[in-house]
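Per your request, structure below.
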C-alpha cells in the first residue's frame, strides 16, 4: 500500500462556541495524484475538514499526517504547507494585497525569493493562466469570478503538490467553471 500524501487519523475538532460543529473521529486519506470531491450540506464540516488538512484548525484529538509522518512540529507544518495549497471558500480572506500582482507574488516572497524573482514568477503564472491583464488591478475591484481565479493563481505560483479547493466554483459563471476545469 502506498503512503498517503495527506491523512487524518481519528480526527476530532469542535468550535469553542459551537460544539455541534465538529469532526468526530474522522479518518481520511488523499493519495498522490488523487482527485476527491467532498459533498455535504452547509455546516456539515467540509471547510473544517479542509482547514484541518493544512493545519489551520488544530485537532482536539487524532493526528494529521503528511507522507505518513505525523505533523506535530512547526517544521513539519511548514513542510506540509509548502506542498499543499488551499483556496478558501471566501477568497476575500485570501486576497489582501493592493494589486493582483502583489497578491500572486506574496507566496514566492515568503519562500525567500527576491522581489524581482517573485514578480517574475507571479507574471509567469498570470501569463500561463491568461490573466496578465489583471496584474495591476486592485483586488477589491475584481468580480467574484476574477477573485476566485486570482486566488487560485496565488496557490499555483507556489507549485504545490496538492491543492485543496473549498467551494471552487463559487462566483464562477459557466465560462469560468470551464476555465477552472481547464486550469486544473
Amino acid at each position: 500500500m502506498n503512503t498517503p500524501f495527506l491523512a487524518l487519523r481519528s480526527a476530532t475538532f469542535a468550535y469553542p462556541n459551537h460544539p455541534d460543529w465538529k469532526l468526530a473521529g474522522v479518518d481520511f486519506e488523499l493519495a498522490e495524484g488523487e482527485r476527491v470531491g467532498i459533498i455535504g450540506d452547509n455546516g456539515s464540516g467540509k471547510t473544517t475538514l479542509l482547514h484541518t488538512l493544512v493545519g489551520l484548525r488544530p485537532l482536539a484529538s487524532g493526528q494529521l499526517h503528511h507522507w505518513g509522518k505525523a505533523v506535530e512540529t512547526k517544521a513539519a507544518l511548514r513542510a506540509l504547507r509548502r506542498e499543499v495549497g488551499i483556496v478558501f471558500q471566501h477568497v476575500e480572506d485570501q486576497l489582501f494585497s493592493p494589486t493582483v500582482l502583489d497578491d500572486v507574488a506574496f507566496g514566492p516572497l515568503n519562500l525567500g525569493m527576491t522581489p524581482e524573482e517573485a514578480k517574475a514568477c507571479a507574471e509567469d503564472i498570470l501569463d500561463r493562466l491568461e490573466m496578465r491583464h489583471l496584474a495591476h488591478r486592485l483586488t477589491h475591484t475584481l468580480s467574484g469570478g476574477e477573485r476566485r481565479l486570482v486566488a487560485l493563481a496565488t496557490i499555483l505560483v507556489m507549485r504545490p503538490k496538492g491543492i485543496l479547493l473549498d467551494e471552487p466554483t463559487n462566483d464562477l459563471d459557466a465560462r469560468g467553471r470551464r476555465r477552472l476545469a481547464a486550469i486544473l
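The radius of gyration is 17 Å.

Regards,
D.
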